[in-house]
Amino acid sequence: MNHTREVEVVVIGAGQAGLAAAHHLRRTGFEPERDFVALDHSPRPGGAWQFRWPSLTYGKVHGMHALPGMELTGADPARPSAEVIGEYFAAYEETFDLRVRRPVDVRAVREGTGGRLLVETSDGAWSTRALINATGTWDRPFWPRYPGQETFRGRQLHTARYAGPEEFAGQRVVVVGGGASGTQHLLELAPYAAATTWVTRRPPVFREGPFDENAGRAAVALVEERVRRGLPPKSVVSVTGLPLNDAIRAGLESGVLDRLPMFDRITEEGVEWADGRRVAADVILWATGFRPVIDHLAPLRLREAGGGIRVEGTRAVADPRVHLVGYGPSASTIGANRAGRAAVRDIRRLLAEQEPVAA
Question: How many whole angstroms separate alpha carbon 205 and alpha carbon 180?
Fold first, then answer.
């Protein structure tokens, strides 16, 4: 029989941000299963990385920072990142005895009794004094809508379902999106596809030179300003630009990364622009990013008029019991580590100020 269990903190999600938060809880004296519980809906360790396409090898991963307290060493850059990082996360969970429960789907978080939050899941309910939400974005791919989209006779798919370039052999592929995934897809597809076309809403910005700590802070500050105002967060890469590495330079020189402005409509046979230009296509690949997975928090009414959750640091302004890590400015791997530590620090302060109240 399902029953409501009580803990001090519930962590939702066991990707980079969730594991970092669980580690800092453990390190500061919280006992897993007694004081906190980490819930993850994925079938195995690895967060969103476990779902990445096989051709995204570890050597192609940009800016993967180690989890706190345990470095990732000796990884073969030729191995799929899903395997390398999945094994690393599994070892991390075991080393620090985090006891992640999976697969557990969190259906809703709502007001409970005695000042607690009630977390309703596929594995029963949890009553908690604080919540760390680390659900990321992978499960909410963003699909833009364009006139005629439903008439297209070819295949449409999102980055979330991309499995590698081989399946597009001999096909004409339109790749939509100016981020890292879009450029990676194009560079991989070019040797296989009959033709590739790259379209983006805005001209891509390529960044030369090292991305140092000062540049990182400036980029994060721009994203942070949006969540402070209660606006939906943008990705960090949207303000940092794309690194101009050797692969990107080769793509620009060869014409693979010859970008076109966004088309105006989709037809049965492809895409077209208002000026009459047309491109025939067999596949439209939407590399258009993801949105935060926060619908389960809807009963708490945290969203602002702008559509996002207003956050100060990691704390939801509308409810100090709720912390969002891996959200907005902490969506990068290094940002997730720092956010996990900050969230635990604030939660410890919150719990110290309150006498525990029985549910």
Answer: 11
- Judging by beta carbons within 10 Å of its beta carbon (0-12, 13-18, 19+), is residue 70 exposed, middle or buried? middle
Which amino acid is located at 216 in the chain?
G
| Burial letters 104-127, b for 16+ CB under 10 A, else e | bebeebbebeeebbbbbbebebbb
Using CA atoms, how far residue 22 sits from 16, 67, 183, in Å, is: 10, 11, 34
Q: Which two tokens stand for residue 198?
A: 């790259």
Q: Three-state DSSP class for 88?
A: helix
Q: pLDDT tens, 18-76?
A: 999 999 999 999 999 999 999 999 999 999 999 998 888 898 876 678 899 999 988 99
Taking the C-alpha atoms of residue 16 and residue 68, their distance in angstroms, rounded to an integer, is: 10
Q: How far apart are CA 216 and CA 211, in angstroms?
A: 7
pLDDT above 70 for 215: no
The dihedral formed by the CA atoms of 341, 346, 349 and 350, expressed in degrees to the nearest 10: -140
Q: How far is it, in rounded angstroms, from Cα 23 to Cα 29?
A: 10
Predicted TM-score (pTM) of the model is 0.87
DSSP secondary structure letter of residue 63: S
- One-letter amino acid at 75 equals A
78: three-class secondary structure by DSSP: coil
Query: Residue 103 — φ and ψ, nearest 5°?
Result: -80, 130
Longest dimension (CA), the chain: 68
